[in-house]
Amino acid sequence: MANNIYDIIQGINQAAANAYDGAHDERFVRKGEDKKVGLKREEGCPINDSRVMDGFKVRFQGSNVIVSYQAELTMKEYHDSKFESSLEQSFKDIVSYLKKEYKKITTKTLALTSQDKAKYHCQNLSQIRTWVTAYKTYKIGGTPELGVDKDEAKEKLGNAVKKWLAIGKETYPGSEKPKNITRKGEQ
Fold first, then answer.
1. pLDDT at 129
2. Where in the chain are the domains?
3. In the chain, beta strands by DSSP E
4. Dist. CA 152–CA 146, nearest whole Å
5. 121: which strand partners?
6. Which residues pair with 69 in a beta bridge?
7. Which parts of the chain register pLDDT below 50?
8. From CA 89, how far away is CA 134, in angstroms rounded?
9. Smallest Cα–Cα separation from 13: which of 133, 132, 140?
10. What are phi and psi of 114, to 5 degrees?
């Protein structure tokens, strides 16, 4: 099963990597290899028109993939009543692209199920422009739940720290206790 999860993650990463800036323009790639993701940077000519900056990346957490999206907007676009729905549409376009590209790469289908609404954060660049960063979590279909037991993780970390501190006592057995330690008991 672990090899299967590794193959899925590797396929999703390759699909995301194939969405580099310029992959969408038929003038710069071989015939039939242009990849339209649905990003705003794909509209217009990259040489003549002013560039719209947007893009996405993927990261993994257990059996989930987190799709992050960054874009530069005008204040008018941000204050539009349909801003959140356009953000959700951007995520739908990205996921649709990832599924199609994953199928081209691996010849297998990819099931991504949305876990929640997109979470976003906007920052003003000026009185005209705004920068938005958003992310949305998707469950990867066909993978087991890969949760981490928090108690077990704390215990492992605690044991590692104790082992590390013991190395100092073994290496420097006659060393003095630092003067800024005021608590009673062991160091």
1. 81
2. 2-140
3. 54-61, 64-74, 112-114, 119-124, 129-140
4. 14
5. 133
6. 56, 134
7. 1-2, 23-25
8. 12
9. 140
10. -65, 135
